[in-house]
Specification:
Three copies of one chain form a homotrimer. Chain A contains four helices and 22 strands. Chain A is mainly beta. Chain A folds into two domains: 64 residues; 384 residues, Beta Barrel (Porin), CATH 2.40.160.10. In chain A, strands 1-2-3-4-5-6-7-9-10-14-15-16-19-20-21-22 form a 16-stranded antiparallel barrel. In chain A, strand 17 and strand 18 form a beta hairpin. In chain A, helix 1 crosses helix 2. The longest helix of chain A has 25 residues. Chain A is elongated and about 125 Å long. The two termini of chain A are 33 Å apart.
């Protein structure tokens, strides 16, 4: 409103119209007739009106004494903070298993099913100009509702770095730090088994001003339960750090190479570790309201069981890149576990995958976090009249949880994926996972029966509907 | 702001004012005097000012370079989607039981108590112009928090029909599809025992363009647990369909007759069914923080226990109508269960109820869903100075869960209800339920002791406070 | 927008410009020349334009037919109610214990740890002009999520008093009614053990029009579980009342003296009571996802165990005051328990504490609730360039849970606190608690082993990060 008034005033002032008055000639030279004098008088009155218009326009404040402004939302007078926004998402999965007999003997008869893999609500916002927060709960994972990202951030604590306090994903691993809403496949790769992931603690993190590099270091209690707590006098501490950089960073996403590395040292409460993972898919049924009869949850295909150990050191290396509609990401993780009453253990895992958008989109890079970001279809399904974004992708991943006295098994997965992004907030995903397990005889959780020792295979068909807001 | 400017421009343009200039006569005919020429010059300058006003009005864009617009909220530039709204409601109940001795022997000593029957929070919104979603959790029902409506809808998938994916109330039964916020009595009628209700799956649904009919068909996993999951290789699938129409539909709610029917076929996971129901009221205490001593939950009055069965077919018929402040609704449901090692079973249930608004309101009909809708008091309590809406209602309902080798009991309820709607979002409800149970001797959960065999009665006084937002 | 238009019209009208016309002289006296007549004609046309400007300004409604108003948010036309706002907060704690040997024998080896003490989300708003509500859940406390404040309020039910229905903190005790977000120390004082606190029921409450006094009376079911329910035919009812007043109330917070008292009578369901408390700190780990090995929760230091009793009467007295940056609060609670098969029991507790703001802030008094309110730093950390508010505080508190046949223990705590309020919504708290336990030999939960009988000490270091929104 004011904008128009001010603009009006400015435009009028620019032209500096003269005030109506008799021409600048000697009064004795020409005498206006009575009619002409009256005309001058009227002109002066009209000029006065225009001047009033100008005054009204140039001094908007008094205007607001005249009347309320019912058709404009008034500028909020109340304090700007705290701000809060409700966000969330859910993933509804359907999964079908095709196991060979050895695989069934090794991990049990995996049941077909449908389930919500994740369903989250979060409050996010600013508590103050330099303090942001998130309070996120997951309602789908056993332990419901689980603490997810529950933290407060104070900006610019040391230089332009931020301090984060609460529960959050510890800075270790590119896959682990990629948002679960933005994953190319249904689940993270098999080496996810090693990650400290969400723990309660504090971190300092920042990035290069041109977003060419990121760094982070954290200290935390370990292992944090699903409600964000950990106790234990005998250890229970860990630290993690991650550094990433862009080696090549051509504009427009045409040519980008990311490298990164991480390290984590963990002294667990109660001197116990356990590493395990499902075959990059999960489906389960839990809680009351249904009649039992089958194993309600998919068992881990590889599982070390409890290991009595003083501490563990984790190392990770990342290499990723994109060029046009093609992108690729890979990571290797190595874990060294110092057993209490046994030899030093070495476990490892790695994955590599690539994706290509058939419809021409690019996978953007999130330079603040050092991970790939959200895909936005060029033309969404709906009023835009598009077909959304279509992506094909494939992944190889591997984890070896067997070493010396621990027989957790070796698991290799090959996955083919097809993703259909209807719009930036809705997608359907289809994965075919060919999972190859090598189980060793031993005291560990896998295999569940002796007939499962050796190589076995499972084919897994899975699909997902996801919406976020 | 622009509106004013554009309007101004339009108004001025309509009048096409002439530019100030000498009259259109031959120059030789009359020569203006020097004074008169000066007047023309001044008129021209004034006209120039007015023209500038017009230009300013007609070309608003450059205006915004001059100044910010602090008193108008700028039009949001960011994407319109996703949208999100936080909604929810809760129901606080107090219940008193008056059982005869046989009834206590049959179902246990039902304890008086107070409880939150339902307490829900939901995020609802649009993920895109053609994709809507809901993520709703209930915090009051055992299993807390439970998945309620958690789905995404894609509009106009086949013709003008919508596709729904996730967990939702399956299209079967008018009572079951009526919102729990809008029920005439505290609970749905006894035949609710048979409904598949909320399951994880997909549905296609739509309605006649004038909302004279609705249709829906769905496929789902069965039985879905309280967290939206189901697994099982041996079955675990179901389908449901419902069709409704208006036979009479006079405007203004004066004369409406609804008919409908539904069918559902279910092949349950693990070949197990169980049908049961409380006496149209529920109160309980659960979880920690209190000292035990009494049975903390109201037992079902009728309960088949687990039935080993291949599948079940469900049939429903609906008849409802309204005229002025009076309305009535009835439904019959028939279930045929194919036992694994026993004869075919037949169970059935029915209810009929009517309501009347003493304060003159009408019960609106929701033509998109084929159910009755929300009551809005003519004059709410508060600033409107009204007494809200007052409604009396009565219901008879029946369920027979005994057949052949299954002794689930026969239950008949008569209910008198009084509802006080303070405003469209707050109501108090009072129910007196006279519950008549006929329990047969058998291996089922009811009766809990032999002394409970035969006819027994319970009088139940219940009240509820409800608020929704 | 309209504001400008109306303002323009008003300004123009004030000056009542004359319409352009020949001077008011007899027509026969002076005849305008043809040129002059034309000038009048032009003036008239220009005046007509200005009049049009006026008309456009004075009659804004038709303007909106010309064009949409894309730069102003239109005034919302939809109903004003219900309103809803998402609020919440969380507290992340880290705690370290330093127990002597007797204390470890008395209460177990308390484990160091980190945990979310509270994490809450709430929907609050108005369902109608005279009906407000809250639906709050806590996700951190065992039993998650727990019902917190879940109620509806109807305004002006008897005079200007409000009626509250649902679960809420019963009106008894100043400490108990102070918001957990605004506590000076990490936890409420030891006498909190006796409070009915949150129960399901109804209350009538109000305050003096100048906020010089508050009153409240309530009836409720007892004990209400973590989900807001209670059942039981044998009792299960309670009532509470509280009255507070300001003896001295100088403006500007310079000199305020608060006195108050409360009474509660409780006939518990199942004739059972239990009083207990942790040493004003709590840390725990619970639920799955972690490997066990230590006692996951801090045990109560004083605990009566279950007492079979008919009823209990509770009495409280409050005295508090503030002067400038200094404030103090104290409370004494006396409980009399009528045992079923034993003598009448008397338990008691008291606390007193004071706080002082080093940075000059005052602790405001909430005259509507009769408790101290929220601290707002004079200059917050961030763009305001301040250091926030810094507060030092100390508390002594005591509870005696041993009487006659009940050996719950006597606990005395001395606490030193330092609070740093970064801004009105973010704070860090540091507490050192010196806890002195006197445990008697007996059948109660404390001590857990005979070596714990007698006096023992524990030093507790605790810190908290809190953000609210």
């Amino acid at each position: 409103c004011l904008r128009f008034a001010v603009g009006l005033a400015a435009a009028v002032v620019v032209y500096s119209p003269a005030v109506a008055q008799p021409p600048d000639v000697p009064a004795s030279d020409t005498q206006p007739t009575r009619i002409e004098a009256d005309l001058y008088s009227q002109l002066a009155r009209m000029q006065q009106q225009i001047d009033e218009l100008k005054n009204v326009s140039a001094a908007p404040a008094p205007i607001y004494d005249f009347a309320p402004m019912p058709h404009c939302e008034p500028k909020p007078e109340k304090p700007k903070f705290p701000t809060v926004r409700l966000t969330g998402f859910f993933q509804a999965d359907a999964v079908y298993f095709d196991q060979d007999a050895t695989n069934i003997a090794a991990v049990g008869d995996a049941q077909d099913g449908a389930d919500f893999r994740r369903a989250r609500l979060a409050a996010v916002g600013q508590a103050w100009d330099n303090v942001s927060y998130q309070l996120e709960m997951d309602f789908a994972f056993p332990g419901r509702p689980n603490f997810m990202d529950v933290w407060l951030d104070v900006d610019d604590v040391i230089g332009s770095n931020n301090l984060r306090i609460g529960q959050f994903r510890q800075p270790f691993g590119m896959d682990g730090l990629t948002s679960v809403k933005e994953m190319t496949f249904l689940e993270r790769g098999l080496p996810f088994a090693f990650l400290p992931f969400r723990q309660i603690g504090a971190a300092l993190y920042g990035n290069h001003k041109d977003e060419l590099a990121t760094w982070a270091i954290s200290a935390f209690r370990y292992p944090t339960d699903v409600y964000g707590g950990n106790v234990g006098d005998n250890g229970g501490y860990g630290m993690a750090t991650r550094l990433t950089g862009l080696m090549i960073n051509n504009d427009d996403g045409n040519g980008l190479v990311h490298v990164g590395g991480g390290f984590s040292f963990i002294d667990p409460a109660n001197d116990k570790f356990q590493f395990r993972n499902q075959p990059e898919v999960f489906v389960g049924e839990d809680g009351g309201g249904v009649l039992a009869g089958t194993n309600p949850k998919l068992a881990p295909f590889a599982d070390t069981g409890e290991i009595d150990a003083r501490n563990a050191s984790l190392f990770s290396a990342e290499l990723a890149g994109s060029c046009g509609s093609f992108y690729a990401q890979s990571e290797a993780i190595y874990a060294q576990v110092d057993q209490l009453a046994g030899p030093m253990l070495s476990f490892s895992g790695a994955y590599a995958y690539c994706g290509y958008f058939l419809t021409g989109e690019k996978r953007p890079y999130n330079g603040k976090a050092g991970v790939f970001g959200t895909v936005t279809p060029t033309k969404s399904v709906g009023k835009e009249g598009g077909i959304g974004a279509w992506e094909v992708a494939t992944r190889y991943s591997h984890v070896d949880l067997s070493d010396k006295n621990i027989n957790g098994g070796r698991l290799n997965n090959i996955t083919a994926g097809l993703n259909w992004y209807l719009n930036p907030h809705t997608k359907f995903q289809f994965n075919y996972i060919y999972s190859m397990l090598n189980a060793q005889a031993g005291a560990g959780p896998v295999p569940v029966s002796a007939a499962g020792v050796g190589d076995s295979e499972a084919g897994i068909y899975a699909m997902r509907a996801q919406v976020d807001f």
